[in-house]
Structure formats: C-alpha cells, structure tokens
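Bug #2210: token dump truncated for Rod shape-determining protein RodA?
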Amino acid sequence: MQMETRQRFSDKIDWGLIFLLFLFFIVSTIAISSAQQTGQYAGYNFVLRQAFWYVVGFILIGFALLFDPDQYKRLAWYAYGFGIFLLGVLAVAPASIAPERNGAKSWFELPGIGSIQPSEFMKTFLILAIARVISSHHENNPKKTLKTDFMLLVKIGVVTMIPLGLIMLQPDLGTSLVIIAIVSGLILVSGITWKLIVPIFTGVAAIGTSILALVVYAPQLLEKYLGVKQYQFGRIYSWLDPYNYQKEEGYHLVNSLKAIGSGQVIGKGYQDKQVYIPENHTDFIFSVIGEEFGFIGASIVISLFFLLIYHLTKTALDIKEPFSAYVCAGVISMITFHVFQNIGMTIQLLPITGIPLPFISYGGSALMGNMLALGLVFSMRFYHKNYMFSSDDS
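Reproduced locally. Full output below:
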C-alpha cells in the first residue's frame, strides 16, 4: 500500500542545488574578474555579462519548473526537432548572421543579443529525446531479449547521428565528444545487456587507440587512405609533446602548465598572475584559478564539482520514475565529461578541445545550456512524489 505525502512548495525546491549554483557563481565572477585584467580584454566587463547570463539562467530554471516530467516526455520530440532545425539553419545561414570563427561555423550573431551557439542547447534536447526513447522502449517491451536490446541501441544511434553529424560538419570536435559522452552514459544505465555493451565499447576504444597510434607512428597512412592532412594532427602532437610546439599549437598548453605549476600550494594571490594565456576567461579559466589560488583553490573548485555530481546522482537514485531518472543520468554524464575534459586539457591529461568549464567559464550559450539542463533536474525533483508505506520500505 502506498500513500502520497503532501509537501509544501518550499520543500519541493532543491535548495541544496541552488546553494551549489550560488557558490559556482561566486567562483566564476572572481575568476573572470581576474582573467579580464589581461591587456587584450581592456574595456570589457565580462563579470557583468556573466552575472546577466546567470540571471537569465535562473529564469530558465524557473521556466523549466512550469512543466512536469510527463509534459517533458511529450515535448521531447518537439524540443529535439527544434534543435535539429536550428543546427540545419546554422549550416546554410550566410556569414552575416553565422560567421566562421577559428575555422568553425557554430554561432549565430544576433543584433542586440550577441552570439548564440545552438549546439549548447541541442545537448539538453538530445537528453530529453534519448530518455524518452529508452523509457518508451521499455514500456513497449517489458520482456527483455537480446533482440529488443539491439533494437534499443539502433533507436538511440539513429536519434544521435543526426545532431552529431550536423555538429561535426561545423566542425565542433568538443561538442561532438560531449554528445558521445551523453549517449554513452545513457546507454550504460539503459538496462541494455552487457553482452552488447562490452563488445561495442571495446570496439570503439580499439578504434580510437588505433587512430591515435597511426597519428603518432604512421600518419602517412591516414593521409594516403583517408585524405587527412598532417597539419590536422597538430593538437595531438602538441598534446603529447607541447614544448616542441610551444610557438604553435602547444602555446596554450605550455602556458597553462606554467601557470598552474607556478601557483604551487596557496597561489600567487588574486589578480597576481604572471603567465599570459589568451582566452583565459573561457576555456582556460581553471589555469587562472590554479595560478592565483594554487593547489588549495583548485582543489576547492574540483570539490564543488564533486559535490554537484554527487548531489545530481543522489537525486537520480531517489527518483523512481524511469524517464526522470534517465534525464538526470544524461545531465550527470554531460557535466561530468565537461569537467573532466576541461580540467584534463589544462594539465595535459587530455588533448585541447575547446570545452568550457561548466558554470565557471565565461559564455552565455554554455551557461544557459547548462542551466537549462539543471532546470530539468529541478523539475524532476520538484514533481517527484514521496510515498508512505512504499514497497521499497518493506
């Protein structure tokens, strides 16, 4: 027997998550205010802009609370279709509204608004779509077999390949990797048998390792048979041996290592950085934190992310409704990969891919995309029903 317990409005709000977001806002404004002191940013007030985007982000969270999980499940395909539409328009849009930056066509330039990156929102829309695919598949196939699991993999693959293909055409390697991480995380929690998951993940890992080995030891084969130019391997070479490429592709990484290393234990102090890193208010904001606040400051930031991921994981485990749990799992996968990749690339653990540090790096689209994703988690928890005398308590 189950009896639903009534909760006050304030009890259904995830105040712990709000407090964590407030702490990230403090860290972000402190780090960005120091980063913008670099000469190239004279006259810009990125802190004020970041504060504005945080306000917009909290409005998005409030808007997300207007819909319950059942409504999100019904709206999932509309959101997915809207995201595909934006990516398609971006691909054919003229340079006047979709200029190319650093060799990629990933942004709309809107008068009075600024740059909008559709792929940042597509990540959240894809989470909704795949969560619906998995939950609906299990509802329609209560008896699991190898065939039904394989069909679920096919469905997930089809839904993923469309946005992934459009994003890779931009090209945007960083966001493409995030998409793959989201899908991988959802596959792992989807209930698909390991008889399918292990061979697929092993095969993907083997292909990735083989390509990396060819880039290092036999790049001429990739150039001959796949038409890849050797200059395109610059990021890999600069990752493996940055000091031999420090005047070219390895410039950011070498300076990032110098900045973080020179911060030592307690750092040089607020706004007392000495190592110059271009665009350090975006992708390399962790280098600023490491140099100015040292190992202690960097550890605090990493601990905040650990608390965030722990909190989101606990929320996902507390929710019994499958669709809501899958949505939470997708958000966890996205944020976890973002953090691991961004911090990893600043310390040479991973190649540089241009992925920002969630909730700390400057960027309106990235911040709003992440806040929208958390808005889904707020909604899933807000409408989650608690029961007395549930079967789980027996």
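Output looks complete on our side. The chain has one domain: 23-192+229-384. Marking as cannot-reproduce; reopen if the truncation happens again.
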